[in-house]
Amino acid sequence: MIREKPDPLALFGDWYAEAGKSEPNDPEAVALATVGPDGTPSVRMVLLKGYDPSGFVFYTNYESRKGQHLLAHPKAALLFHWKSLRRQVRLEGPVSQTTPEEADAYFATRARGSQIGAWASAQSRPLEGRFSLERRVAEVTARHAVGKVPRPPYWSGFRLTPLLIEFWQDGAFRLHDRLEYSRGAPGDSWTTRTLFP
What we know:
By secondary structure, this protein is of the alpha+beta class. The chain has 5 helices and 10 strands; from the N terminus they run H-E-E-E-E-H-E-E-H-H-H-E-E-E-E. The protein has helices spanning 8-22, 65-72, 100-109, 112-120, 130-143; strands at 29-35, 41-47, 50-52, 55-61, 75-82, 87-97, 155-160, 164-169, 177-182, 191-195. Helix 4 (112-120) packs across helix 5 (130-143). The two termini are 12 Å apart.
């Protein structure tokens, strides 16, 4: 049975900490679902870079496919799946942009190679060949050979503020445990209900 807590972030924190100890790779990996301009859903993996009562934060190129989707239709869903724990957490809610200060602070913590890559990659656009990418990396590396690499103006973060959080725990014979927290708007109190598997 899932042990219900008044605050779903406290329960998420417990599960996230356990995943950090048991998952062999990237416990912070999360599937991000967005909606394109024609209403077609799209999903891909991103990395969670922080969470608090205001929401769950990840970073990307705003000119990428997911960036364009979120800027045009600022709602999304996230799904964590921790196979080692046989658990998953699903979240849905509105998405907002992080502040430039938040993005600058996180960008400064990235490895220099990742900072260079953020400048060199025209994310989600067609690539003529690997050499074209390597040439761009070399050009950016030469341009920023000395000093700090600044954050590209098109690279920043998004914050999903959940209105729904569902915790799922695997059960024998597919009789899983499901606990859902929901609220009408950010800042509202959470209500809970148990769902059939």
